């Protein structure tokens, strides 16, 4: 069985990454979303083990010590990390695994998994992002301010990704996401094994 594809999926907070990815995951049973571990408190409606594994800083440090995280980063005052086991198991089973992570973690994955696909979701404008972040209403203004500053830093890193999807219209962006994953799977560097096998076939 061929291995699945690791897909690193980033974009500033409030850009609508989750909203864009949800219909993709519903339509593609061969794709899964990695559930991260975080030291941040749950937002209203978030469930432990579903959106995140919500843990203490001590527990998080233990996980790092045991080598249980594929990558981790500090973001906006909290720690976030990708549990290694689920990702490695699913990839081995041939599933595509999305890591919805911020840019520092993404760059770590680039070093350890250069074969991963890197997708960045971009807001159509700064004004739209600001409006989306303020409109969520779940966070105090200083948190929104911190997230906007972080967004500025993240957008500067977008050029390090393989693909950029501008989320101006959900349906159009969804189509781009479909196209990007298909295109990524057809990249020559990913199909070298297939080419080698065909090269060994007898000529007709
Ligand atoms: P939020 O607190 O809004 O859920 O997430 C804040 C940021 O942390 C987002 O950009 C999100 O993609 C990122 N993030 C979530 N999980 C992880 C993770 O496991 N590793 C890293 N590096 N970033 C993560």
The end-to-end distance, rounded to whole angstroms, is: 27 Å
Q: Largest sheet, order of strands side by side?
A: 2-7-1-8-9
Radius of gyration, CA atoms, in whole angstroms: 18 Å
Overall strand count: 9
β content, as a range? 15-25%
Provide the CATH top-level class of the domain at 6-34 and 95-199.
Answer: Alpha Beta
| Global outline | globular
Mean pLDDT: 92
Features:
4-stranded mixed beta sheet; Rossmann fold; about 200 residues; 8 helices; single chain; binds guanosine-5'-monophosphate; alpha/beta
Task: Give your account of this protein's structure.
By secondary structure, this protein is an alpha/beta fold. It has a domain at 6-34 and 95-199: P-loop containing nucleotide triphosphate hydrolases (Rossmann fold), CATH 3.40.50.300. It has helices spanning 17-27, 57-65, 84-92, 103-112, 126-135, 141-156, 170-185, 192-199; strands spanning 6-10, 31-33, 36-38, 52-54, 69-75, 78-83, 96-100, 117-122, 163-166. It has a five-stranded parallel sheet, sandwiched between helices. A four-stranded mixed sheet has the order 4-3-6-5. The chain binds guanosine-5'-monophosphate (5GP). Guanosine-5'-monophosphate binds next to strand 5 and strand 6.
Give the gist of this structure.
Helices cover 44% and strands 21% of the residues.
Which secondary structure elements does this structure contain, and how are they paired or packed?
Layout: E1 6-10, H1 17-27, E2 31-33, E3 36-38, E4 52-54, H2 57-65, E5 69-75, E6 78-83, H3 84-92, E7 96-100, H4 103-112, E8 117-122, H5 126-135, H6 141-156, E9 163-166, H7 170-185, H8 192-199
Parallel strand pairs: 1-7, 1-8, 2-7, 3-4, 8-9
Antiparallel strand pairs: 3-6, 5-6
Helix pairs in contact: 1-7, 5-6
This protein binds guanosine-5'-monophosphate.
The site of guanosine-5'-monophosphate has 14 residues, from strand 5 and strand 6.
């Amino acid at each position: 069985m061929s291995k699945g594809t690791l897909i690193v999926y980033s974009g500033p907070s409030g850009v609508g990454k989750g909203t864009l990815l949800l219909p993709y995951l519903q339509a593609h049973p061969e794709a899964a979303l990695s559930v991260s571990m975080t030291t941040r408190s749950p937002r209203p409606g978030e469930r432990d083990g579903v959106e995140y594994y919500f843990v203490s800083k001590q527990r998080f440090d233990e996980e790092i010590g045991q080598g249980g995280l594929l990558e981790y980063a500090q973001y906006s005052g909290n720690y976030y990390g990708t549990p290694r086991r689920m990702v490695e198991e699913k990839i081995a089973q041939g599933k595509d695994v999305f890591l919805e992570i911020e840019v520092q973690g993404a760059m770590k994955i680039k070093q350890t998994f250069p074969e991963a696909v890197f997708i960045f979701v971009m807001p159509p404008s700064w004004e739209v992002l600001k409006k989306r972040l303020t409109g969520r209403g779940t966070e105090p203004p200083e948190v929104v301010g911190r997230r906007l500053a972080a967004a500025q830093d993240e957008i500067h890193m977008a050029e390090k990704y393989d693909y950029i999807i501008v989320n101006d219209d959900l349906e159009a962006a969804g189509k781009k996401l479909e196209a990007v994953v298909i295109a990524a799977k057809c990249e020559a560097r990913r199909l070298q094994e297939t080419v080698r096998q065909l090269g060994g076939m007898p000529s007709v």
